[in-house]
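Write out the 3D structure for:
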Amino acid sequence: MLRAASVGVGDEVVVPAFGNVEVAEAVALAGALPVFADIDPGTYCLDAAAVEASLTSRTAAIVAVHRFGHPADMGLLHGVGQRHGLLVLEQGESEAPYDEIARRRERAAYLDGKLRGVRTPDWGDGHTYQQYVVRVPGNGRPDRDAFARAVRGRGVDCRVPVKTPVHRLPGFRRCVSLPETERAVDETLALPVEASLTRRDMQRIVSACNALGGLLQPAFG
C-alpha cells in the first residue's frame, strides 16, 4: 500500500514502537524512514496528539495498528491526516467468529470483576479481546516479571505481550522519548482469555493472581 501511494525514499512514515517490528520493516522495505510516535496508555494504539507532534515536512503517511483486539482511534488519526495531507493506513488483526468473540468477552468480564491488585483493561464494548492485557503496578519489569513467574508457577499460562519496543531493536534504534510505550513494555502482561477456557480455568487464573496481591518487590542481595 505504501508503494502504491508512491511513498518511498526521502519520506517518513509514523508508526508505533509498541508491538511487532513488521510494520517498521514494511516502511523500510518501501524505502521510507519509520518515525516512532507514542501510544495511548489505555488502548496501546497510536496517540493522535503524539503522532501530530512527530510530523515533519518529510512525513508522508501514518500507519495505525489495532492492538490486542482494540481498534485505534481512526477518527482522530484521519483528522491528523486530513489536516496535514497525509496517507493514513491501518493494520488490523485477524477476525474471529462472533461466537468466539462473545465467549472471550464473557471471560474478560469475569476477570474484570474478580482480579485484584492488577490494573484490568478499560476498553469498552467494541473490544474483541484478542489478548487480555493487565498492568502489574510497581517498579516496572522486576515486579511484572516476578509476578509472571509466580503466576506460571501456579499453573497459569501468561506472557509479556511486547518484550522490547521497536525503537530499541537493532536496525531501528532511535533516541526518542516514548514514555507511555516504555511504561507499557515494562508493566503489561497478557492473561489467558481464550474461548475454550472453562469456569474452573478462570477461577484458577483469578486465584493465582489474587494470591500474589498484584505486586511483588524484587529480591536484592
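DSSP finds seven helices and six strands in the chain.
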